[in-house]
TrEMBL record:
Any one GO cellular component localisation term in the record: peroxisome
An example molecular function term from Gene Ontology annotations: 2,4-dienoyl-CoA reductase (NADPH) activity
SUPFAM superfamilies per the UniProt record, alphabetical: NAD(P)-binding Rossmann-fold domains
Reactions accelerated catalytically: a (2E,4Z)-dienoyl-CoA + NADPH + H(+) = a 4,5-saturated-(3E)-enoyl-CoA + NADP(+); a (2E,4E)-dienoyl-CoA + NADPH + H(+) = a 4,5-saturated-(3E)-enoyl-CoA + NADP(+)
Keywords from the UniProt entry: NADP, Oxidoreductase
Record's protein name: 2,4-dienoyl-CoA reductase [(3E)-enoyl-CoA-producing]
Source organism of the structure: Dioscorea zingiberensis
């Protein structure tokens, strides 16, 4: 689907996206690129990164891939350094890297629980912490008049409770809390904006392949607003809105993009 935004809304901007080589992350990366940004993607799998970078470059997008794990502070620092070395600055950090699997609390070891918190929550915080020196007002390589932007990819699982997702729900609750705290502190001190996006079920993603049967079971077309699976495009458009000047007064919010699914209840 064609973008309703002008093609130059991110002209001159530089974005680093963790988990930007596949799924929702890749669509955000591609749309940022098509709207003028240079993009760096960080991920664990070299083959996925290489394929993503080639696909972006074929579209005329300036792109690099950096292999790394958000659980490692040195990988986070290196991805940021390489981005700024290549493109001269950093304007936008998107934290999209996430771990997920279905497990009941009975079967989920504390280490399994921690693994997902390490990727989603600590990984997000690590990337934000390491990126501050580039994103803050007056930061390395930046136009001194403004600060940059962070977008944290979250979920809606923890607004209520979701079967077999105790670890991801806890991890994403922490992500939303990090979003609000950084929006307050870095918005005040460094003129930065920190926001989140909480996607619903999105077609063609690892999240949906793993979770859809449980998520959608028992939901009926009659009771779920806009009953349909979302597209990666829907999430990328929300990210473009937040990243562009259209979102310049939005700070500390996590935008739910799920067609109203999380609040649906049976009709009585
Ligand atoms: C129970 C599991 C498990 C499973 C791993 N563990 N998979 N426990 N059921 N299916 C446990 C292991 O037993 C181990 O604990 C601990 O977790 C660490 O496992 P490792 O395999 O050593 O970890 P690692 O190789 O680091 O892999 C972590 C991973 C990751 C979380 C499994 O590889 C992963 O998730 N990859 C998929 C990425 C993905 O799907 N991304 C999209 C996310 S979608 P013990 O105690 O045995 O040592 C998303 C959407 C959410 O986030 C919301 C949707 C609506």
């Amino acid at each position: 689907m064609e973008s309703p935004f002008k093609a130059d809304i991110l002209k001159g901007k530089v974005a680093l996206l963790t988990g930007g080589g596949s799924g929702i992350g890749f669509e955000i990366t591609a749309q940022f690129g098509r709207h003028g940004a240079a993009v760096a993607i960080m991920g664990r799998r070299r083959q996925v990164l290489d394929a993503a970078v080639s696909a972006l470059q074929l579209q005329g997008i300036r792109a690099i891939g950096v292999q790394g794990d958000v659980r490692k502070k040195e990988d986070a620092a290196r991805a940021l350094e390489m981005t700024v070395e290549q493109f001269g600055r950093l304007d936008i950090l998107v934290n999209g890297a996430a771990g997920n699997f279905l497990a009941s609390p009975e079967d989920l070891s504390p280490n399994g629980f921690q693994t997902v918190l390490d990727i989603d929550s600590i990984g997000t915080y690590t990337m934000c912490h390491e990126a501050l020196k580039y994103l803050k007002k007056g930061g390395l390589g930046r136009d001194p008049s403004t600060g940059g932007l962070i977008i944290n990819i979250s979920a809606t699982l923890h607004y209520t409770a979701s079967w077999y997702q105790i670890h991801v729900s806890a991890a994403k609750a922490a992500v939303d809390s990090i979003t609000r705290s950084l929006a307050l502190e870095w918005g005040t001190d460094y003129d930065m904006r920190v926001n989140g996006i909480a996607p619903g079920p999105i077609e063609g993603t690892p999240g949906l392949r793993k979770l859809a049967p449980e998520e959608m079971k028992g939901k009926s077309r009659e009771t779920v607003p806009l009953f349909k699976i979302g597209e990666r495009w829907d999430i990328a458009m929300a990210a473009l809105y937040l990243a562009s000047d259209a979102g310049k007064y939005v700070n500390g919010t996590t935008m739910v993009v799920d067609g109203g699914l999380w609040l649906s209840k049976p009709r009585h």
